[in-house]
Amino acid sequence: MPKAYWIAHVTVTDPAQYQLYAQASAAPFAEYGAKILARGGTYQALEGADHPRNVVIEFPSLQHALDCYHSDAYQAARALRENAGIPNITIVEGV
What we know:
Elements lengths: L3 E9 L2 H17 L3 E5 L13 E7 L2 H9 L1 H10 L3 E9 L2
Helix pairs in contact: 1-3
């Protein structure tokens, strides 16, 4: 079964509120077997819209990633992120 990758590009507008989201999302990520591969850090935007926070999270499968996103625990964390940033999130299955 191929792994899946949750890719987020975010412009954080309220760092304190966004930190609450980051803390709350840790539990559902752990529950669904997520492994954070990149979070923040140095980057270079080469094409398209730039967002200064870039995150890549590996999941055991596409179903794990989707189940995490749609879980009650993650949706509660997501609610904390509302009005704290402008996110673009994609989940993609690996090869």
